[in-house]
Structure formats: structure tokens, C-alpha cells
Amino acid sequence: MQAWQVHENGEPGEVMRLTEVERPTPGHGQVLLRVRAANVNFPDALLCRGQYQVRPPLPFTPGVEICGETEDGRRVIANPALPHGGFAEYAVADARALLPAPGSLDDAEAAALHIGYQTGWFGLHRRARLQAGETLLVHAAAGGVGSAAVQLGKAAGATVIGVVGGPDKAAVARKLGCDVVVDRRAEDVVAAVKEATGGRGADVIYDPVGGEAYAQSAKLVAFEGRIVVVGFAGGTVPSPALNHALVKNYSILGLHWGLYNTKNPELVRHCHEQLTELADRGAIRPLVSERVPFAAAADAVQRVADGVTTGRLAVVPENGATA
Question: Other CB atoms closer than 10 Å to residue 85's CB: what's the count?
């Protein structure tokens, strides 16, 4: 079969190579899946660079999120077991962690309903306890992680402010349903959000960026507000001033979604049931901006790494399907 492999760490566009390899053999408790669509995530770029918290042995195939098909024909959502990732014609995954793919979504959309939406649901509902009528601010609102949080926030009845970089991403954020959109390249984010909230700020801030975005969050969080730290796509890990959190009376909440798979997997299944119900009634729908041919997978991962994409990019193998 064909698979994209990384033989040395570096930028995805340079180190991902299309290779002919043997079909992987499932280990104990694993199943073989035909890949119908593989979603591109920022962790795929970190894996290529050797900067992710998990470092599979070289060579490995990246691709941490797929819609696949079991040998008995079931469509499922899975996180492939590295080193046999999803940018291949076949992958392996833990049988106990398979989730049914919603019939209301095509393969590319189903592949994108997992990590980003699970992270958003756990961040907004489990950690921050977002309530209807509250104000939610989402950094990188037009990206894969941010777009999921925007949709989940709207579905929860929140007023959503989206922060983006550039007019094209601003248009995407408006289409997603943001009530207010702030272009950080053209506007002062702090001033614009304070004006939009009458000086109060946001009750919940969802931050997958870090760096300057976190510094803005600390200035914009409301009394008894919650900042959810999701990741550091901006490349800089902030050092929060805890005296500021004390004086202003807000919470800083960390979220590592992957821990729920080991600490409380039943919550992951419960979350998937909630997401499926929301998808089936049209309250959320993954924004798949591109369905990328298999031969262009390395370029797709590089573009996500460079932060120039909106929504989700899904790689579709030639043997995959779209419905």
C-alpha cells in the first residue's frame, strides 16, 4: 500500500515522503481500517518536527484523526495507533476506542468531528462550564480548532466573538456564526473586544494560540471569567502572572483532551454522543475547506503548520470515499 512516511524530523513539506510499504498488521486489541478520509491537524506538523509530546520511532506515518472502514464495512472515527498513522491507505487503531461515524456527515466531515470538537466540548462544557447568555471569545476562530469552538459556543447559546488574522479569515468567522469578528491584523484586539462588550470582557476565552493571544486574554477576561488554555499554535508558551489572576478574580484552565482517553474514556463516548446529536440536527458541521488528494498530503500538512488555512483540510486516498 501507499503511505506518507517521515524518516527524519523537520518541516512536513520536506520530510514527508510517499512510500510503498507493507499493509500494517494489527496488534493485540487493534483493528485494521481502510482510510476513507484523514483530517490534517496541527499535531501532525509537530510530529514531523519531533516536537509533539508523543514521539513515535522513525520511520512513521503521521495522521492522528481519520474516518475509516472496518473489515465488516462499518464507518468509524478513530485516532490511528502510531507509527501507523492516517496518511496511508490503511491504518490500525485500538478497537475499544472506535466511534461510529455520524450518517449525517460525509467522510471528510466525520474525520474532522473528533479531536477539534471533542477538545471544544470538553473545554467549553466540562472545564469552563459555559452557560447560555455568556460571552465566549475564540482566538483563531477561522481555524480547525477555533471553528469547532465557535459552532459549539453558538449551539450552547453564547454570544461569540471571533479573533482572526486577515479579511479572508474574518469572512469565514462571520459565516461560522460569530456575533462579532475582530481582525487582529487591522484592529486593536483589546480595544475592539472591550467596545463590543461594554468594557466587561468575555466570560470564557478559548485560546489555542498562546503568546500574544494569551496576553490579550488576560486583559479581556471578565470578572469570574475563565481562560481555557488549549495549545500554543503561535509558538510561544506564555508565563501567566498569577497575581493578576488573583487580583482580577478569574480562572486559568488547562485542557489536555488526550488524558480523558486514559483517565475517563466513558466521557469521550458521552461527548461523541452529544456531538453526533448536534451534527444530526444541523447545529454543528465541520468546516472542511479542502478535500485534498492523497498525493498532496505533505503540502496540506505544511500549510496547516504555516497557519495559512481555514477550517479543516482532509486528505482522501484514492481508495477512500466521500459519502
Answer: 28
- Angle in degrees, CA 160, 164, 168, rounded to 5: 115
Q: What's the rounded Cα separation, in Å, for the pair 284 and 274? A: 11
Residues 16 and 14: their CA atoms lie apart, in Å, by: 6
Phi/psi of residue 54, nearest 5 degrees: -105, 130
pLDDT tens digits, residue range 242-283? 999 999 999 999 999 989 988 999 999 999 999 999 999 999
Query: To 10 degrees, the CA torsion angle through 295, 301, 303, 306?
Result: -160
Kindly report the backbone phi and psi dihedral angles of residue 106, in degrees, each rounded to the nearest multiple of 5, phi listed first: -75, 180
pTM of the model: 0.91
Give the span between the Cα atoms of 184 and 188, in whole angstroms. 6
Q: Which three cell numbers stand for residue 281?
A: 440536527
| All cell numbers assigned to 154 | 453558538
**Checking phi first, is residue 29 left (phi over 0); if not, alpha (psi -120 to 50) or beta?**
left
Across all residues in the chain, what is the average pLDDT? 95
Phi/psi of residue 125, nearest 5 degrees: -100, -45
Reported as a single tens digit per residue, the pLDDT across 197-233 is 999 999 999 999 999 999 999 999 999 999 999 988 8
Burial 38-65 (b: 16+ CB within 10 A, else e): bbbbbbbbbbbeeebeeebeeebbbbbb
Q: What's the pLDDT score for residue 322?
A: 42
E strand or H helix at 19? strand 16-20
Instruction: Please name the helix (run of DSSP H) or strand (run of DSSP E) that holds residue 12, with its range, or none.
Output: helix 12-15
57-116 tens-digit pLDDT: 999 999 999 999 999 999 999 999 999 999 999 999 999 999 999 999 999 999 999 999
**Cα–Cα distance measured from residue 185 to residue 213, given in angstroms and rounded to the nearest whole number:** 12
